[in-house]
């Protein structure tokens, strides 16, 4: 019988991660654990729920299965933390092999490594820029063919009647493209769904999200985002560029493809999590740079939203990758547009230049901008709340790939129907002048020489619609058109984000904000004195776009710079910063940012910048996992195989001690060794008894461990004979002899700061005599958070 808790997650369709519904019994029949310990101090109440490992599997009889006619519901509760996600090893293992390699390396060798890092960053920028070019050109061509076909069809049937055929054509074209994109994501690579920004945030935080930086993910991402945008969904192609850049970085920096089983035998030194993380940061920044033409914004995005760890040289290399990415995009597009050598184009989205004298702002407008920021925060929080409940509904009911594809096709058809209906019933006709010629002007029922203004917003790619709202002359839209467009597009964008398609939320957010921002500008102009030009609608469209995007994603510093660079006018730096700050403060009062919500809904053990407030009274002894599985310095092979094969624990780090006592008494620590290291040692049969017969064979080197990275073989694939089980393995040479340790009385914030700042995977807790009494891992720290009733503890879900 299949597990009923199968749920679509970032890592796989088949990953089994269930959760208990709030206030409902858990799936194994036991009641949901209540908060069991309470601490009162100074009148404030602290509550800690007891730690429980919840088994989410339940067998269902055939009769019960047959009796179920309605869609199968998957209970979900965000108060759970998944055991499925492992940590990345961001700490260097300074064992004897590492020290020997470092001693052998000359000064020239170190310089070559540094040059290689710069070369890799250049390649990352180059390839990310080329991918952005491919996406941009293909989307422009396909969307052009689609809109031209629909436009001709509408014009033909406007005269003779039968516009319903045009609607059917539009809907069929939309859901055909979306169906292809959704099938790719739902059936071939579910981790490619969405923008990919939450997954990259988790990766850079130290969480190993399965298959997030694979070549297959990149291919599905690029094809999926082309289909989504051409399919007319309320999405943008900018968000997925960040994920694409990260995948490119992860592949290029390793000098091989594990998917294609092709090894170029270059960049072998960088085959470890520490180096890979830095390059993925550069890839994410290059993606932002290619998307918005904002190299500095890309660096700041990587710093603010992504990287948990930073240094000065990394900043320069990331900036270099961002600049190369923008340059490559501009150069290739200049050739495509027959302006070879013209590098003045920005990124994928062109907001146009805000250079008009009418776009200056005065001191008395600052309060208006701040008020718009507050509106953006409220609307952003509403968007996030609606999307939160919609995502929970999808987790519970729309968890099969076929259902996900059907939902995506339904949204595509509804989007086309709503767009057509709004255009059909709109009587907002504007004169068609040569100065602001529309890309696909629809006359419909307007007089000759006029076009339907509503069609400018719907009958276009979202990027072009944003540019129209920013730069079209005052009087291009009437307020009713903008109001209806804002309302419908808000709900369409909210429904679309979270579908099984590759899509970003940046451009829909900007489009919604630009629409209601322009509406504010029109309203202010109407109440201003006659002849006053200070309330230019385009200026307020820009402020509204910033407010809406800030209210949804809650980015401040990087988004300010991205918008300033994308608009090519630093004049609006102060208003945009104030608007984004206000939107974040107001939005955070109601709900978290969209990316944080989706991270939490996937039960990822994400570590924030600081430990929860009011947690200083918790010590390492209360937080740690114990008892700890330890290994002797010289251990029997059979014992190691049994420990690694134990599926109930599935530990990844093992303290190495002088001698494990029989009565489970703590033993003195002398090092730490990882599961991946032990598997490589077993694979190469590094046994004490075979040392004499291995004189003719070469000694094991770090290269052997790097060659096995990142897909270390499972223990089940390694054959160990009965005679070999009796052999001994000396771990001295391979273990990390100086692992980070903390005394058992260390407070939680100090443990948290050490763990996160150093990017650790395991932190050993010792007593006064340096004996191992516990081990702190990511999940031990991530399960504590500040809730409504004080400090709360999440439950660990056994998957």
From TrEMBL:
SMART domains: CBS. Residues 1-12 have a biased composition (Polar residues). Its main location: membrane. Pfam families: CBS, Voltage_CLC. GO terms for cellular component: lysosomal membrane. Residues 735-793 form the CBS domain. Belongs to the chloride channel (TC 2.A.49) family. This is Chloride channel protein. It comes from Oryzias melastigma.
């Amino acid at each position: 019988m299949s597990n009923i808790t199968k749920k679509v997650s970032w890592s796989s369709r088949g990953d089994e991660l269930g959760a208990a519904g709030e206030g409902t019994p858990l799936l194994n029949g036991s009641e949901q654990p209540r908060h069991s310990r309470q601490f009162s101090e100074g009148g404030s109440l602290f509550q800690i729920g007891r730690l429980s490992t919840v088994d989410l599997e339940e067998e269902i009889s055939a009769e019960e299965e047959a009796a179920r006619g309605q869609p199968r519901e998957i209970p979900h509760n965000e108060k759970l933390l998944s055991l499925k996600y492992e940590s990345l090893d961001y700490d260097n293992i300074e064992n004897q092999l590492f020290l020997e390699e470092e001693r052998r390396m000359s000064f020239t060798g170190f310089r070559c490594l540094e040059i290689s890092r710069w070369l890799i960053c250049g390649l990352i920028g180059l390839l990310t820029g080329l991918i952005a070019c491919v996406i941009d050109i293909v989307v422009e061509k396909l969307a052009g063919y689609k809109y031209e076909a629909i436009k001709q069809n509408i014009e033909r049937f406007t005269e003779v009647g039968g516009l319903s055929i045009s609607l059917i054509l539009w809907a069929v074209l939309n859901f055909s493209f979306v169906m292809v994109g959704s099938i790719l994501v739902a059936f071939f690579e579910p981790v490619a769904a969405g923008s990919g920004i939450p997954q990259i945030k988790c990766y850079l935080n130290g969480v190993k999200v399965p298959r997030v930086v694979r070549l297959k993910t990149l291919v599905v991402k690029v094809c999926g985002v082309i289909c989504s945008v051409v399919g007319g969904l309320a999405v943008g192609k900018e968000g997925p560029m960040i994920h694409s850049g990260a995948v490119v970085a992860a592949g290029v920096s390793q000098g091989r493809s594990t998917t294609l089983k092709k090894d170029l035998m270059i960049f072998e030194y960088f085959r470890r999590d520490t180096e890979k993380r830095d390059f993925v940061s550069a890839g994410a920044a290059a993606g932002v740079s290619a998307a918005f033409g904002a190299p500095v914004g890309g660096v700041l995005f990587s710093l603010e939203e992504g990287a948990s760890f930073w240094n000065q040289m990394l900043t320069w290399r990331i900036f270099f990758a961002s600049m190369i990415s923008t340059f490559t995009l501009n150069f290739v597009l200049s050739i495509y547009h027959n302006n070879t050598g013209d590098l003045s184009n920005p990124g994928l989205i062109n907001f146009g230049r805000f250079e008009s004298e009418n776009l200056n702002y005065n001191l008395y407008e600052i309060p208006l901008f701040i008020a718009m920021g507050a509106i953006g925060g409220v609307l952003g929080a509403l968007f996030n709340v609606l999307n939160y409940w919609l995502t929970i509904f999808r987790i519970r009911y729309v968890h099969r790939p076929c259902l996900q594809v059907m939902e995506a096709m339904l949204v595509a058809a509804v989007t086309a129907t709503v767009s057509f209906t709004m255009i059909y019933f709109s009587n907002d006709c504007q004169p068609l002048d040569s100065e602001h010629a529309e890309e696909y002007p629809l006359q419909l029922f307007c007089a000759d020489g006029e076009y339907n203004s509503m069609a400018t917003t719907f009958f276009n790619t979202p990027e072009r619609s944003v540019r129209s709202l920013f730069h079209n002359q005052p009087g291009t839209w009437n307020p009713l058109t903008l109001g209806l467009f804002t309302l419908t597009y808000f709900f369409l964008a909210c429904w679309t984000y979270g579908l099984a398609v590759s899509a970003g939320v940046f451009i829909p957010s900007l489009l919604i904000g630009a629409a209601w921002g322009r509406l504010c500008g029109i309203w202010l102009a109407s109440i201003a004195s006659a002849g006053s030009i200070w309330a230019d609608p385009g200026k307020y469209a820009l402020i509204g776009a910033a407010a809406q995007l800030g209210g949804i994603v809650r980015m401040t510093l990087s988004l300010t710079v991205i918008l300033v660079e994308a608009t090519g006018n630093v004049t609006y730096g102060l208003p945009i910063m104030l608007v984004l700050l206000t939107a974040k403060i107001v939005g955070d009062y109601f709900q978290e940012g969209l990316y944080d919500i989706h991270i939490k809904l996937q039960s990822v053990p994400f570590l924030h910048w600081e430990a929860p407030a009011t947690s200083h009274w918790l010590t390492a002894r209360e937080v740690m996992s114990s008892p700890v599985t330890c290994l002797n310095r010289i251990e029997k092979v059979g014992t190691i195989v049994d420990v690694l094969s134990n599926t109930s624990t599935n530990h990844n780090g093992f303290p190495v001690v002088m001698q494990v006592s029989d009565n489970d008494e703590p033993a003195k620590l002398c090092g730490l060794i990882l599961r991946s290291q032990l598997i490589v040692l077993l694979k190469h049969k590094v046994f004490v008894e075979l040392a004499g017969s291995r004189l003719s064979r070469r000694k094991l080197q770090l290269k052997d461990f790097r060659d096995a990275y990142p897909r270390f073989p499972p223990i089940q694939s390694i054959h160990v004979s009965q005679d070999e089980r009796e052999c001994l393995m000396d771990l001295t040479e391979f273990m990390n002899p100086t692992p980070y340790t903390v005394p058992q009385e260390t407070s939680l914030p100090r443990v948290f700061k050490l763990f996160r700042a150093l990017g650790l995977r395991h932190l050993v807790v010792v007593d006064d005599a340096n004996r191992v009494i516990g081990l702190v891992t990511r999940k031990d720290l991530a399960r504590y958070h500040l809730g409504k009733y004080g400090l709360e503890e999440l439950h660990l879900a056994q998957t």
